[in-house]
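Morning!

This is the sequence you dropped in the shared folder:
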Amino acid sequence: MLYYGTTDGIVMRADSANTSPFVTDITPPGLNAGTASGGFVRCLAVDPENAGHVVVAFGNYNFPSLWETTNGGATWTDVEGNLAGAAGPSVRWVTMFRVGSVSYVFLGTSVGVLSTTHLAGNATVWAQEAASEIGNVLIAHMDYRASDRTLAIGTHARGVFTTQIPMPVAVEDGAGPRGDRPALAQSRPNPTRRTATIQYGLPRTQHVSLVVYDVAGRAVATLVDATQERGAHEARFDGSRLRAGAYYYVLRTASGTITKRLALVK
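The structure's back. Tokens below.
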């Protein structure tokens, strides 16, 4: 199955592309590339584990530029979310990949790198990545290498950057310990505009470290550094002094280490 887009805004899918291709026009409905408001196809990203799951980026301003399909283009959903509207950026590149159980979508835009781990139609929240390192520069290209979870980002005027996406630990989304392992819940709310509550559980009394890191691996907040008893606990994250973007919180105990992601929006 091969997807491709054109400069006049048409999205096509070729089935049996390696033998006898059968081509279908799967352009999202209502997008008329022949009008002044139309866009052109900048990039298509295909889920490496599901050929029917695609995100397409259209290049233009004040235009619905991000669309998702989960059925090979039979139906589409606008996933611009908080990027919609006349003030929204131009999207130049889309990269989609999975690390463990987490699905990532990264955008290269006219105002830097944005990402999400949850496509939710109009409710999708895109958070800025590497605000200090890369900033609000135009992103020309991205590529992901699954063998070592490395994402490379090519910018206009600031060179090339790389980052390694951490491997999440698969645990139940709750604060109760399982056997001899700790448990770590997803921060709530996520994304957050300022503060969030993080719940976790311990299988026994032990020393606990709960630290929040930015995408460059720098510790930005230590929420817990103490010996705590068995059972459920919670910590409070305050991101009011931090830049908007993606962060990772890491629970370390003698029973194991768990990493999860939170998004801070302003």
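Headline: The radius of gyration is 20 Å.

More detail when I'm at my desk.
O.
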